[in-house]
Amino acid sequence: xxxxxxxxxxxxxxxxxxxxxxxxxxxxxxxxxxxxxxxxxxxxxxxxxxxxxxxxxxxxxxxxxxxxxxxxxxxxxxxxxxxxxxxxxxxxxxxxxxxxxxxxxxxxxxxxxxxxxxxxxxxxxxxxxxxxxxxxxxxxxxxxxxxxxxxxxxxxxxxxxxxxxxxxxxxxxxxxxxxxxxxxxxxxxxxxxxxxxxxxxxxxxxxxxxxxxxxxxxxxxxxxxxxxxxxxxxxxxxxxxxxxxxxxxxxxxxxxxxxxxxxxxxxxxxxxxxxxxxxxxxxxxxxxxxxxxxxxxxxxxxxxxxxxxxxxxxxxxxxxxxxxxxxxxxxxxxxxxxxxxxxxxxxxxxxxxxxxxxxxxxxxxxxxxxxxxxx
Length: 375
Description:
single chain; five-stranded mixed sheet; 12% strand
């Protein structure tokens, strides 16, 4: 079997919304990134710490030297994850005498999705409750567990394995994203999850596996491999072209309200087109009216230590002393020690007002000018 499923759990949001995109993406080469390797390192350390806490596996300290991106922040984040998992396991022990704790468990949900499988970071199985915990080391995208199809696919795979062994009635799905201070949990009854699998997941998966169904653009395009050249996404974003941007004063509130939901997607699409065109141009493609040039760059030291030595020898101090920022200080001290020592010295000023969709979970501000003055 291939290392990557055509219809993977991690890409399920995409192919559930846009079924034919799965086969097209399968023809594109995977591109590795430093962020992906950083996440892999963090997951490896998480696994080691949870297993060691359960009395098995290698001492996590023995593997840190093998991790390319290990640092204080990774140490603290994986420590928080280990503590969270063990706390959840202690809760499971209250439900039955022999709960299971599984890490990096292969989960097969091919009963609903052709050749569908994935790997669950952590499963805690007990009578009454199945708990799926997924560790997210990424910093860029805030991940919500509510209605998360990746987590639901993992839960289905876990049910297929353990539902006959344990009397599972409820499924808990948790996203643990420490670098965003995000712990998001969704709870479903088993019946509702299975109903979703039969009525939504399975029929859509059949369409996607066959390359059928309709293309659809939306926020699920974010990690699509063909997002830069997808015609449906282009049509979706080019709808804004019907507005005359040369006369913004003529746009009424209704028109602005219609444009707002598309603005972020339009900017993202435009940037994707620019990046794709640059890579194609570097490979030899010619675009009328455009050429590749060397971008602007700032001067930099060839060897910082050599610079420091020369300046010091000539009687000057080459260094500036600066207090660590909150993120760096938290990494240095660890979150618990940071809160203990500095909790009373931290304040969080009011954030700058920002306009977001009504679905955003933050509380709406009173926008009266006397209550919140916008500079």
